[in-house]
Amino acid sequence: MSANLFSNLNISPAQLEALDALGYHAMTPVQAQALPPALAGRDLIVRARTGSGKTATFGIALLTGINPRFLGVQGLVLCPTRELADQVAGEIRRLASRMANIKVLLLCGGKPFGPQRDSLQHGAHIVVGTPGRVKDHIDRQTLDLSGVTTLVLDEADRMLEMGFADAMQAVVSRAPASRQTLLFSATYPDDIRQISQRLQRDPVTVTVEDEVAHDEATIEQVFYEVRKHERQTTLLALFEHYRPNNAVVFCSTKKQCAEVAVFLTEHDIEARAIHGDLDQRERDQVLLQFANGSSPVLVATDVAARGLDIKALDMVINVELPRDPEIYVHRVGRTGRAGSTGKAMSIVVEPEAPRLRAIEDYQRQPCICDVLASLNRDPNYALVASMVTIQLDAGRKQKVRAGDILGALTGDAGLAGSSIGKITILDNSSYVAIERPALRQAMNYLSQGKVKGRSIRARRLR
């Protein structure tokens, strides 16, 4: 274990202090394999799943090479979705928390262009963004990549799947040829191999096997074989049988996502859908409510859920099996993280039998198949979130901090600290999770009281 300590790496005391504050002491397998060559300046191809510690891997490598005195873009991270980019930027900020004056800027679609342009004029050390919006800034000459020393392509396979190949190429072509390029991908199809050959120089390849993440002691995987017309009732029966606190339900299409979320809600299981037809604000709010415990069930497509980082996820349910066994592995890998146990339940109809065999071949172990004892509904069962979310119309740009909101609610409003959950601060708004019994007390105060000396409009998210 001692060989895998971060303190053995050639990184600054400030970086070690930040890692220690975050509870990062021993490296994960991907970090132990990838960080030494990355810190030595080598190009990397890293094949590892979400949740393996890859963000901290490239975050540490990026920050180690930053010159704080040069306020120009030195590091660039491209991500397939705004949700993932937002999480990556947040993680890099945390990793940089003990370093002086490191500025990390988020450039994504779904947000106004003007404020991003203005922020770029004030300079940034690291930019995290989606290919389309980053390309827009380059085309409008508001973003200069001539000082980039490290380029990261995060979840490169998903960027290709989402049609970003041309935008990625256009962005990369504007970065110096002498840069370091770190490519992270959960899968390694021919397209990724070709991109590596075009963009990288003698890369070191790091592969962390998915099977390590799916130890039977960590994730219980069960496949329920049913007839096609029993799919929905089986879904209800799985919730009633296992009674998870939260769950992600995976669907194959946007239409199926919306239908399943409505079906679950109609049967007293509070669920929200996330898919490509939602606008960015709606997507952000759905993910935020799921992450802070205000919505117990998320119904999602694979692309929409990419980058979702829930540290304690009780269960994953596949409404139908994906065609690609690798996608199945990434789905179920979202539960049972950090040594906790999780459940991965899949509903299988007869035409999907070849997909089941493909999963067995991929995992090199037989799938456990079962039949539920009963599909009859328990009329008393319901799954409702213990928290609700309040949105405030002030955020980072109004100098509001999480401590200001917490202080107002526990001080002037008189709420117990235990009734207040996760507080999220964005540029012009903030969100706070409140236990349901305390909601009225919180709203009564916020309708008349003040946060940091100013009246702030509040509303409950539904």
In short:
This protein is of the alpha/beta class. The protein has 17 helices and 18 strands.
Task: Characterize the structure shown.
It is a single chain. The chain has about 450 residues and is α/β, with parallel strands linked by helices. It folds into 3 domains: about 1-210, P-loop containing nucleotide triphosphate hydrolases (Rossmann fold), CATH 3.40.50; about 210-370, P-loop containing nucleotide triphosphate hydrolases (Rossmann fold, 3-Layer(aba) Sandwich); about 385-460, Alpha-Beta Plaits. It is about 35% helix and about 20% strand. The protein is built from 17 helices and 18 strands. The strands form 3 sheets. Strands 3-4-2-5-6-1-7 form a 7-stranded parallel β-sheet, sandwiched between helices. Strands 10-11-9-12-13-8-14 form a 7-stranded parallel β-sheet, sandwiched between helices. The chain has a 4-stranded antiparallel β-sheet with strand order 16-17-15-18, covered by helices on one side. The model is unreliable at about 210-215 (pLDDT under 50).
